[in-house]
Amino acid sequence: DREILAAYPYRNACPPTVWSSLLDGAHRDIVFAGYTSYFLWQEQPRAAERLRAKAEAGCRIRFLLGDPESEVTRRREAVEDVPLTVSTRIRITLDQLRKLGQLPGLEARFSEGHISLSVFRFDDEALVTPHIADQLGHESPLLQLRRLQPDGLFDRFAQHAETLWAAGRPVPDVGGGS
Q1: pLDDT tens digit string along 12-33?
Q2: SS3 of 50, please?
Q3: What's the farthest any 2 CA atoms get from each other in the chain?
Q4: pLDDT tens digit string along 95-146?
Q5: How far apart are CA 168 and CA 160, in angstroms?
Q6: For 4-170, CATH number?
Q7: Residue ranges per domain, the chain?
Q8: Which of 20, 76, 118, 144 has the most CB atoms lying inside 10 A of its own CB?
Q9: Predicted local distance difference test score (pLDDT) of residue 175
Q10: Please, what sign has the CA dihedral across residues 80, 83, 84, 86?
């Protein structure tokens, strides 16, 4: 519990400045293991430019996304039942990533294993959203974590993202790998 810096009842209750500070402060690893990560492009000014600068400075940036064509995605769309569908939100992120071009250190993979848990890691800090059954991501709680010990809460969530990454399928035409 010492690794929990803040808890928010909703992801969108976390101030955008927290996201900005973590994104801008990361130098080694950035992981967006959110099923769509669509909100990044909407809520963070110049997100693509900032990610490009990070990658060019040697930061590894990875996006773990749901497959817009998968059955898991179709089932989630039926649950959410909103006009801006899950597959559309994933495609917006894919479009933004493809516009970044072939950057060394930028990679994306598809995974369905994180539909109910998003992990956004910035070096030794993370924002984690356990999704509530029928609610959208921004309506679910968010924990802000900082790594203080081996095998603590931060490491448990980071390892979850790593396990899904290892089993994921590469997204064609995104990034230049590591």
Answers
A1: 999 999 999 999 999 999 999 9
A2: helix
A3: 43
A4: 999 999 889 999 999 998 877 899 999 999 999 999 887 766 668 899 999 9
A5: 12
A6: 3.30.870.10
A7: 4-170
A8: 118
A9: 79
A10: positive
- Whether this prediction's pTM lies above 0.70 is answered by yes
What is the spatial distance between Cα 110 and Cα 106, in angstroms, rounded to a whole number? 14
Q: Confirm if 3 and 156 have CB atoms less than 8 A apart.
A: no
Q: How far is CA 4 from CA 128, 164, 176, in A?
A: 10, 23, 34
pLDDT tens digits, residue range 27-64?
999 999 999 999 999 999 999 999 999 999 999 999 99
pLDDT at residue number 62 = 98
Which of 8, 54, 1 is CA-nearest to residue 31? Answer: 54
Quick check: helix, strand or coil at residue 118? strand
Strand partners, 142: 8
DSSP state of 26: -
Q: What ranges in the chain are assigned the alpha helix state H?
A: 16-25, 39-43, 47-56, 71-80, 86-99, 153-167
Task: Name residue 121's beta-bridge partners.
Answer: 31, 126
Radius of gyration of the chain (CA): 15
